[in-house]
Design a protein that fits this description.
The protein is mainly α. It contains four helices and no strands. Helix content is 69%, strand content 0%.
């Protein structure tokens, strides 16, 4: 899975307030609009969302992404049929 795909899954999983905080941080850092920030993190060659951010919010988002990926992995494992 690419960072772009991970970004899409992650950003779609958070509520609008968190999404807007993330996009505002990126937009302010690069002096672009929030819409452009959203498009940037979905580019095929995008880096992980937190890498576009600055300040403590980047560390918080990194941890949120780690937790999200772990939960997704757990859900996939739990959904795997068991053959006994």
């Amino acid at each position: 899975m690419t960072d772009s795909e991970r970004n899409k899954r992650f950003i779609d999983s958070v509520d609008t307030e968190v999404r807007d905080l993330i996009l505002a941080n990126i937009a302010n850092h690069y002096s672009i609009s929030m819409g452009d920030a959203y498009l940037e993190i979905l580019q095929p060659d995008a880096e992980a969302v937190f890498e576009y951010m600055k300040g403590n919010q980047a560390h918080v988002v990194l941890q949120m992404m780690i937790n999200f990926e772990a939960e997704q992995s757990r859900l996939l494992t739990d959904a795997t049929p068991r053959h006994y």
